[in-house]
Specification:
Blueprint (H helix, E strand, L loop, with lengths): L8 H17 L4 H40 L1
């Protein structure tokens, strides 16, 4: 299993989907469920970080464009 810090957005999102499906399916003992939940929380945070970075890049590009136009 790859460290979360090394996952790109798509890989983190895809693994998060798998985690949710496993948790919804059930059948895991409490310890396994908790570990899976924790991994899911970390994956969700990683996705948010990627999206925030993308948002910042877009905002910077838009503000650069406005500076050039002015």
């Amino acid at each position: 299993m790859k460290p979360i810090s090394e996952l790109g957005y798509e890989a983190a999102r895809d693994e998060l989907i798998e985690v949710v499906q496993q948790l919804e399916h059930g059948g895991l003992d409490l310890d396994s469920s908790l570990k899976l939940w924790e991994r899911g929380e970390q994956l969700a945070k990683r996705c948010e970080e990627h999206l925030a970075g993308a948002r910042n890049r877009i905002e910077q590009a838009l503000s650069s464009g406005e500076d050039d136009a002015g």
